[in-house]
Amino acid sequence: MLTSIIGSLIIGLIVGALARALMPGRDPMGCFATALLGIGGSIIGGLIGSVIWPAAANEGFTRPHRLLHFMLAVIGAVVLLGLWRAIRR
After folding, report:
1. Contacts of 74 (CB under 8 A, 6+ apart)
2. How far, in Å, CA of 2 to CA of 22, rounded?
3. How far is C-alpha 20 from the chain's CA centre?
4. Domain region containing 49
5. How many domains, in total, are found in the chain?
6. How many other β-carbons are positioned within 10 Å of the β-carbon of residue 66?
7. Which residues of 1-82 form beta strands (DSSP E)?
8. CA distance 31 to 37
């Protein structure tokens, strides 16, 4: 359980950092907020993936599904970062 939480934070940090790199600009966020951005993006990406490919949710995470989930997580984090910027203005 603890390793799952730590793993989620690490993956969230990577996804959030990639989203911030894809959308450069001033975002005064620390590491924790960047990790939360990535985790939120992962949730959004998972929801998008389950709507587009509902059958894939029951197949488990094979290697292509992991890559797809990671890409959707980055896209979800970029969308979340865009919403964050719109709200902060």
Report:
1. 15, 18, 19, 22, 41, 45
2. 30
3. 11
4. 2-88
5. 1
6. 10
7. none
8. 10
- Predicted local distance difference test score (pLDDT) of residue 65: 67
25 Rama class: left (phi>0) / alpha (psi -120 to 50) / beta: left
69-81 confidence digits (pLDDT tens): 788 888 888 988 8
The pTM (predicted TM-score) of the whole model is 0.77
CA distance 41 to 81: 9
Tens digit of each residue's pLDDT (9 = 90 or more) over 33-44: 888 888 888 888
Angstrom distance (rounded) from CA 48 to CA 41: 10
Q: Please tell me the predicted confidence (pLDDT) of residue 58.
A: 57
